[in-house]
């Protein structure tokens, strides 16, 4: 997913990938910018994202369209963390939801994925607001 997209952008070709335990980064020249592939594992992701978020100019959140139904909560939590990140908010950078594997037979289309994630983001936000209300009352 993410690493395959990273390799396509950096090398312009398809490569075999495996689960990442560290970040991949490259400096591109035209236009000049640094691209970073952060591991998807929740325990690893936060530390690497924090390392690079200070200079963020854009974020791509990759979603596996083929097994999205089984991971809607997890995908939404990742997007929620990105959207609440103070560096992302300060930079007002664009955030792209990339629906990968659209060519697979059982994949979900972008519109159903967006709708499901919007519902889940609303639930996550309401849960956070209610937790704050309960603590203050």
Number of strands: 4
The separation of the N and C termini measures: 44 Å
Number of helices: 5
Mean pLDDT, nearest integer?
A: 85
Helix content: 40-55%
The parts where pLDDT drops under 50 for at least 5 residues are none
Assign the structural class, choosing from mainly alpha, mainly beta, alpha/beta, alpha+beta, or little secondary structure: alpha+beta
Keywords:
alpha+beta, single chain, two-stranded antiparallel ribbon, 137 residues, 5 helices, two-stranded parallel sheet, 4 strands
In short:
It is globular, with a radius of gyration of 16 Å. It has helices spanning 2-11, 42-53, 68-84, 86-91, 110-136, and strands at residues 24-29, 32-37, 59-64, 95-100.
Describe the protein's architecture and organization:
With 137 residues, the protein is an alpha+beta fold. It is built from 5 helices and 4 strands, in the order αββαβααβα. It has helices at 2-11, 42-53, 68-84, 86-91, 110-136; strands at residues 24-29, 32-37, 59-64, 95-100. The chain has a two-stranded antiparallel sheet. Strands 3-4 form a two-stranded parallel ribbon. Helix 3 packs across helix 5. It is globular and about 50 Å long. The termini are far apart.
């Amino acid at each position: 997913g993410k690493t395959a997209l990273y390799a396509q952008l950096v090398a312009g070709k398809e490569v075999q990938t495996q689960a990442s335990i560290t970040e991949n980064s490259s400096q591109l020249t035209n236009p000049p910018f640094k691209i970073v592939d952060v591991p998807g594992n929740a325990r690893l992701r936060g530390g690497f994202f924090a390392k690079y978020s200070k200079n963020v100019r854009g974020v791509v959140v990759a979603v596996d369209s083929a097994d999205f139904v089984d991971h809607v909560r997890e995908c939404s939590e990742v997007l929620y963390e990105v959207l609440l990140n103070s560096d992302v908010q300060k930079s007002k950078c664009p955030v792209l939801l990339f629906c990968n594997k659209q060519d697979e037979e059982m994949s979900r289309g972008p519109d159903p994925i967006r709708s499901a994630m919007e519902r889940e983001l609303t639930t996550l936000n309401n849960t956070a607001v209610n937790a704050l209300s309960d603590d203050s009352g």
